[in-house]
């Protein structure tokens, strides 16, 4: 069963779309599930002034993408780097265990976009963003 917040963010996702000339773009996905998230960031100074997403996946994937954008929009890069999948789940009032991988993908999409931003600045992102996982190992959904 999904919470009212999950259903709201699925039915009325916030910040859907692309940002032209984005300062950072991150795409992550899980071929086993078919969930693919793409995040676009506009950054001015040290602040995320705009964020948009495109997600191909289930309702939980769309909801976690939507809430993650809400959680980092207007925040500093440092604050956005602190976003965790646990915080995403809590903001949505929980997810079924089989859908927890969607929150992991949302966290990874934000970090992948920030890593791309740093690469574009000529900075190695790994010491700042950390090592990005290529695949969500927490996925337990059916193929």
Helix percentage range: 40-55%
The whole-number mean of residue pLDDT values reads: 91
Order of strands, main sheet, comes to 1-2-3
Topology pattern, helix = H, strand = E: HEEEHHHHH
Keywords:
single chain; three-stranded antiparallel sheet; 6 helices; disordered C terminus; 143 residues
Summarize this entry quickly.
The protein is of the alpha+beta class.
What can you tell me about this protein's structure?
By secondary structure, this protein is an alpha+beta fold. The protein has helices at 4-11, 59-72, 77-81, 85-91, 100-120, 126-129, and strands at 24-30, 35-44, 47-56. It has a three-stranded antiparallel sheet with strand order 1-2-3. It is globular and about 45 Å long. Mean pLDDT is 91; it is low at 136-143.
Topology:
Elements: H1 4-11, E1 24-30, E2 35-44, E3 47-56, H2 59-72, H3 77-81, H4 85-91, H5 100-120, H6 126-129
Antiparallel strand pairs: 1-2, 2-3
Helix pairs in contact: 1-2, 2-5, 4-5
